[in-house]
Amino acid sequence: LEAALESTESANSWLHDQLQDAIQSKLKLQEELKKSRVTSIGQSVSMEQLDKENALLKQQIGELRNSILKDKAHLVSELEVIEADVLSKESSYFELQADKEHLEQLIQLKTQQLEHLGSQVAEFEAGVADLENKLVDAEHSCRMLTSQVNKLE
Known about the structure:
about 150 residues; mainly alpha; 1 helix; about 100% helix
């Protein structure tokens, strides 16, 4: 009976130890469950915040894209205006260059004509001087002949 009592006490002690271990394990698991729930709640809140931030960022990105597209369209139109202006000025420049070349050719032609007229004037003046000399000689001859005719009369 003593052996049965000892065996029962030993089994009771062992069951008691197992119960204490089970209680400790249960408490540990409950503590971990609480921590897990707190973490889960925190993560849930964090996920909600991240979802809100993500939605806000998506909205901001959309607005930024729209703004960039508007700015790009504006820049394209400004560049088109600048390009048209450059082409217009380039066309005007080429017209001015053509007019300049034409005027230079005209000036050269007029200069050549003036030089030709100058040489004609010089020839004419030389001819006039020669005729004046001949006139002086003729007048002199005429006076001499008049003088001889007067002497002969």
